[in-house]
Amino acid sequence: MSDKQIRIFDTTLRDGEQAPGCSMTLSEKLRVAKALSELKVDVIEAGFPAASPGDFESVKAIAERNFGPIICGLARCTAGDIEKVYEAVKSADRHRIHVFVATSAIHREHKLKMAKEEIIKSAVGAIKMARELVDDVEFSPEDASRTELSYLAEVVSAAIEAGATTVNIPDTVGYTVPAEFDRLFRYLGEHVANIDDIILSVHCHDDLGMAVANSLAAVNAGARQIECTINGIGERAGNCSLEEAVMAIKTRAEFFGLETGIDTTRLYPTSRLVSNITGMHTPRNKAIVGENAFAHEAGIHQHGMLQHASTYEIMRPEDVGLSRSNLVMGKHSGRHAFRNRVAELGFELDEFETNRAFQEFKKLADKKKDVYDGDIEAIIMNADSASSGPWTLKSLEVQTHTDQPATAAITLIGEDGDDKTESAHGDGPVAAAFLALEQATGVQITLKNFELHSASIGEDAQGEVTVTVEYDGESYRGRGTSVDIVEAGCRACLEVMNRILRRKQYGSSGPGRPTPEQATI
Ligand code: KIV
Ligand code: ZN
Predict the structure, then answer these.
(1) Is the domain 387-506 a CATH 3.90.1720.10 member?
(2) Counting CB atoms within 10 angstroms of each CB, which of 67, 239, 402, 404 has the fewest?
(3) Nearest CA to ligand 1 atom 8
(4) Which residues, chain by chain, have CB under 5 Å from ion ligand 2?
């Protein structure tokens, strides 16, 4: 690789997935890993195999698919962790073990209770062990940005001597600022004799809103790998956003003189996939992938745009995979147009999935005049969950009144084809309907979170509901869509209840479906 090439190390499935509310099932992780490979990231950090059996299985499953990018797993500096990563990643043609240990005084004294020399010894031992298993070993001194510079240089130098091939510098708590991080990277460049033997990497968190700026400062000062996540999801305020860092390097190529191998036209579809799967919706004004990122409202801007797009546009929407027209479809749109739009939105559906989605599209087009991209995405994202029983929603009736409890009557169809009807009262229509669902399915849940999002625009837009519920000490997330928001909530809740019932019946989520750990969030 040329010295101008920035490697993109995506940690959506590890640091991103670790964030509350962002957990994914095995099949969701596989979809994200495939999308990341189509985006052409260089490395996929697929998980932390020692964290749980589910994490181990998902890293292994991703490695077995051999999507193309290097598959990496995270390990503490222990033999057990390192062996687990090796077992999980070894089937990928290209694989990496990533070991880390904290180095800052705060972590040394309060978390690890280890002296400086002990930490170096532990890192060196772990790197050597990992190098006996694989050729590609990354080392991270956690909380590097708050570590004494001279000690950090000592640790980095020892890591390189022990055989690390990439050394990553994390700003674990999102504390640094660009000018300071620039100094840190230049200091390492000047004080670590063997620094040119490895790829220097950067890993930033966004606690002060500077993860992207700090990562760019680091590459400007010599880093050649950026660790980042789709939509910037991650612990607390999140990680460096992949799409922002990549588009900054591309759009300001004359400043950075650097490039990435990313197919930027896949940025928007990948961002939508991750937000649809995690239920973490990007703000409208989010750079690069937000709904308003390329919308020009002010008259003076629109006038300028009509004269010449470059007056107010520094990137073309097409470059990030956003088509200029949010093409409106309706009940007269045919299968061919639908299939084309689905492909333009970045989905690859087989014949069966296309037919199923087209039928849903036709049903929706009967209910609402205009069907937008968001509606089509919602149909596709919900297809899997909607088709997995044992229960299917047949009908829902709700009654609300300002000073009386709401009532809901629900009819479900079971696997045997029989109907079951239950009704209940509640503080509102959602509470009443959920209670009726509990009675009908026999699954008692505790609702932890209910999020409603509009899938497209207009009064008849579909409501997309994501629920997080607790059952038997475990957390589950479900998603449902409908032009009726109470129905969307019921579909989301029923999706979770069905998953719980399948687990009970099969001892897992069902034949060919994720194991219990993977099915939970
Ligand atoms: O933020 C951090 O320090 C990390 C390391 C494990 C790389 O995620
Ligand atoms: Zn991190």
Answers:
(1) no
(2) 402
(3) 15
(4) 15
